[in-house]
Design goal:
With about 180 residues, the chain is mainly alpha-helical. The protein has helices spanning about 5-20, 25-50, 60-70, 75-85, 90-100, 120-130, 135-140, 150-170; strands spanning about 75, 105-110, 115-120. The chain contains 8 helices and 3 strands; from the N terminus they run H-H-H-E-H-H-E-E-H-H-H. The chain is elongated, with a radius of gyration of 20 Å.
């Protein structure tokens, strides 16, 4: 991963200059948003670099993990769209990618034959079980700068922000 330090320094300098020109700028909030976006982008790039050798991107992986973590290993594409924050067209692409690799299967719901049901396959479960453990050290290292207490506080604050934004922003999730 490339160094974020120059980006962080430029962020503070740039926001400072904008605040000098527009005094009513909510400087603290702008810095927080930019830091979150910068950090999330860096984490996503690193994560996708780890997924690339396995032929997956983040949205493919998140979809597979939603099926893996669901109680019965299945969901409809519409449910997955909402949870994975994907449009229906992209969910079709994701389902095609995962089905082609036999990580998921498609079938029709028993209660409504018009409804498609995606289900993780045994091969998909084995794939996830093999893929995840090597990623654990990098995830842990990303947050090694925090104590256990700080991580819990950070988690609570991010959750609070996410739930607040959810109430105040019209999300663009699919139906």
């Amino acid at each position: 991963m490339s160094s974020l330090k120059p980006c962080v320094e430029a962020l503070y300098e740039g926001v400072g200059r904008v605040a000098d020109r527009i005094p009513e700028l909510p400087k603290s909030e702008v810095v927080l948003v930019r830091l979150l976006m910068l950090t999330a982008g860096a984490l996503l790039r690193e994560f996708e670099d780890r997924l690339k050798p396995h032929g997956l991107n983040d949205s493919d992986f998140r979809t597979l993990m939603m099926l893996y973590s669901s109680e019965d290993g299945s969901a409809t594409p519409s449910e997955l769209c909402v949870l994975a924050e994907q449009k229906p067209t992209n969910m079709t692409r994701i389902a095609n990618v995962l089905a082609k690799r036999d990580l998921i299967s498609r079938s029709h719901a028993t209660h409504d034959r018009r409804q498609v049901l995606l289900r993780i396959t045994p091969a998909g479960r084995r794939f996830v079980a093999k893929l995840l453990p090597p990623m654990f050290p990098a995830v842990a290292e990303s947050f090694a700068c925090f104590s256990a207490t700080e991580r819990k506080t950070f988690e609570k604050l991010l959750k609070k922000l996410a739930l607040h934004i959810d109430r105040t922003v019209d999300t663009d999730a699919c139906p």
